[in-house]
Amino acid sequence: MSNSALALENQSWELVKTAIIDPENSMLTEEQTALLCRVTSLARVVDRHPLGKAALAIHRSKYPEISRRTACRDLQMAMELNVTYITFNYEFWHNWVINTLVEQIEAAKARGDLKAWAAGAGNLIKAIGEKVVEEKDPRLVEKHTFLIQINHHGSIRNLDTRAINDIPPEELKAISDAIYTEITEEDAEEMFKT
């Protein structure tokens, strides 16, 4: 049997679920069961210690017989398993939900169960809905203040870039019209000389 066929990632979720719920009747090999135990243990560690180095050190102390490379692979699998708010991969989750719903719809259609097929189609429409809007992180600009300096008829005004988001579109247009002034070729030549 090839090495890739033995990989835990290639096993069905039902086999993995059975191995977690009922380890005595598990269909997984010893290597796969050991990997599953290591990864679930490391996922719990990652939940308490989200920094990879700290989690890796704890994992290596718990399982001294594994190599650093194996521990890093375990960490990668545990990070994929242990999704937090910070590392939430919306695209992966959304595609997984859609694929699962499509499989359920196809199975219902093959069975001739029109009620389940219609319910699955309704759920698929809801799942495809709008993508979650990401909020702007206020800490991104908290340390830096960016100002746009406007000189209009000798009057200098400083406009904070954070305030631009709060200005109505009509006022923004008036500001941009006030900033823009046409110059002649003589004015341009004089600018280049200075």
Structural commentary:
With about 190 residues, this protein is mainly alpha-helical. It folds into three domains: about 5-80; about 90-130; about 135-185, no CATH class. The protein is built from ten helices and two strands. It is elongated, with a radius of gyration of 29 Å. The chain is about 60% helix and about 5% strand. Strands 1-2 form a two-stranded antiparallel ribbon.
Which key features would you list for this structure?
two-stranded antiparallel sheet, elongated, 10 helices, 3 domains, mainly alpha, 194 residues
- Content of β-strand: 5-15%
Distance between the termini: 77 Å
Silhouette: elongated
Helix fraction bin? 55-70%
Radius of gyration from the alpha-carbon trace, in angstroms:
29 Å
Q: How many helices does DSSP assign?
A: 10
Number of domains: 3
Structural category is mainly alpha
Q: Strand order, biggest sheet? A: 1-2
Q: Number of DSSP strands?
A: 2
- How would a crystallographer describe the biggest sheet? 2 strands, antiparallel
Detail the poorly predicted runs: none
**Mean of all residue-level pLDDT scores:** 79
Write the element-wise H/E pattern from the N-terminal end onward: HHHHHHHEEHHH
Break the fold down into its secondary structure elements and pairings.
Layout: H1 3-6, H2 13-21, H3 30-48, H4 52-62, H5 68-81, H6 90-111, H7 114-128, E1 147-152, E2 155-160, H8 161-164, H9 169-179, H10 185-193
Helix pairs in contact: 3-4, 3-5, 4-5, 6-7
